[in-house]
Amino acid sequence: MDRLNNSVVSEFVLLGLSSSWETKVFLMLIFSLIYLGIILGNLFIFFLVIFDSHLHSPMYFVLANLSVIEVGLTSTTVPKMIMDLLIEYKIISFQSCMTQICFIHIMGGVEMVLLIAMAFDRYTAICKPLHYLNIMNPKICVSFVIAGWVTGVIHAMSQFAFIINLPFCGPNEVDSFYCDFPRIIKLACTDGDRFEFIIAANSGFMSMGTFFLLILSYIFILVTVWKRSSGDLSKAFVTLSAHITVVVLFFTPCMFLYVWPFPTSSIDKYLFIADFAITPILNPIIYTLRNKDIKVAIKRLSKQGHYVRLC
Length: 311
Description:
311 residues, olfactory receptor activity, disulfide bond
């Protein structure tokens, strides 16, 4: 870590999202409401799963962990983005920038594994219902969570090890509202082609591989349901369509930024709003408004609250 202190560049300037004052105020209000919704919605699911014994099942265990990760991933970027919208000179220290990059990729790695766990849970419940409890036992669920954190840390540190050895001597302007490997590598005072390949091979392969694995798993589930229900896919498709929407929204920006050569345009920063704001707020909506067990648990909670007030 000594290299961080020896870098000539001590801070980066984030160019942000917009230069119009009216647009900045509008975006600040919108993202403030979205961030509040993300925090309240995901934490509500987390505590509901913990305190309602009827939700102590494999799927909701994974869902509770996913909710925590969504809060963590969003909190690495959105609060600063909101504050920077009303600041003319948006700066982030070198150390804070590196820390933000690490947390983004750690949380992103964990979320990918948890999405795989949820897809595996749905596959087991639909395709192997008689063996569901044996397959999705507590040990497997905890293993998925541990595997997610291990994957996330290895994924982030394997790239960070190269970044900290790069010389940064200027310029220091990042055309985005957050720090990430592709944008930072372009500012290094060295030939970044080799490092761009490392990032693309790591993050790109991980993003694309996970995306296609999830899509194939959902297709396999739909085919299985189609065979068993004589072609009636309506119920299964309604259930899985929300999951597929979240997967597409989460992975499209990742593949756009990491799979192909690093973009020269600034469109990727707008795409990543889906990862940091849209997807995290969709999860509570999808898993509450479209989930029977969660809705029943909310009714139980409201009845208990009403009973407590009467007493």
